[in-house]
Amino acid sequence: xxxxxxxxxxxxxxxxxxxxxxxxxxxxxxxxxxxxxxxxxxxxxxxxxxxxxxxxxxxxxxxxxxxxxxxxxxxxxxxxxxxxxxxxxxxxxxxxxxxxxxxxxxxxxxxxxxxxxxxxxxxxxxxxxxxxxxxxxxx
Length: 139
What we know:
Elements: E1 2-3, E2 9-10, H1 23-48, H2 65-87, H3 93-110, H4 116-136
Antiparallel strand pairs: 1-2
Helix pairs in contact: 1-2, 1-3, 1-4, 2-3, 3-4
């Protein structure tokens, strides 16, 4: 093992062993956590005050708003955990981030009739995360 600038260590194979994320992973790990926190807040609101959201009359994916709250809470916690894994440069973090962000995108899309502005905002964030993590997951 050889010392590298910045206190990192390099193994004989030339790979870095420190747990600091690279630029792209840092750039997309933080939005994962932000999207997760927004989904957790949306989930808590759906569980505690389900009268806050509008209820569409004729909608195929019409669930009780408490059920939607639990769905968003679970997806949000998964996003936060995955975002922390991406920031810690864990090997499974980027692939899991792509999967969880895709699930979040789908759930937000199905939630549009209840709260359109919030859902579309989180969907845009999820699309940015998906694009970025898919581009750096190949390396």
